[in-house]
Amino acid sequence: MKVTRVPAYFFQIEVTTACNFRCFYCIGRSWQPRHMRMEQFEVILGRLPNGRHTVSLQGEGEPLAHPQFWSMAEKVIDAGFIPYTITNGSLVDAERMAALFPTVGVSLDTLDAEEAERIGRRDLPRVLRRFDALCRAMGAERIIVHSVDLGQDLTPLRSFLAERGIRRHVVQPLQHKEDYRQRYPERVSSLSKSVPGGPCSYLMRPRMRFFDVRGRGLPCPYIKNPAYYRSDDELRRDFAAAMIPSACAGCGEIGAATP
Ligand code: SF4
Prior knowledge:
By secondary structure, the chain is an alpha/beta fold. Helices cover about 30% and strands about 15% of the residues.
């Protein structure tokens, strides 16, 4: 009998757009904070295909700010999926996190408390205390640190992570997409809107689905105005006709897919 393997997908569910930080590069800080309703969360979870997929509780807000965050994580496990999240670290309950999450992401951009405040990342000493508690509870190999590259010197942070044995450090650039860029127009230029050079890997080789706080399914986490989005196929048709869809204008992922 032929066994068809279902590839492992990454599903990202934006459980909240509320946050206790004010990071200048976070588009969610321009929005009214909103929590996803549990009923909505359960509907999304119930419609996901079977398989050992990762379901990340993650979006334009601090996931742990959702009052039902822990119940949501338990529901992900009960449904047979692997839970993940990226937290700003300020609200972490290390023991509980270690008990439920095989791996957890923590966002840290700097070890300089003044620079952290300028970015909008509050009370860095408290974050670092909780981070160390998380390292003790989970072990370094289960932690992934995510940083946004703002041009800051990352050397001290890299040394700090190396001292703790953390090897997975993901550094991402500021997104050029217009709806993001309007929060920091002086920091990144507008990307060319002319020759697309092909769509992104999200459309070429779909391996993820993003569900925003209202439950809308999208091909990637970067489409922030769903009024421009109708379907993945429509986006692909635009790219095939050498046009950049409005939903994707300025996106740094365009042309990043290798054939
Ligand atoms: S916004 Fe960017 S990543 Fe998302 S579908 Fe468009 S080109 Fe791809």
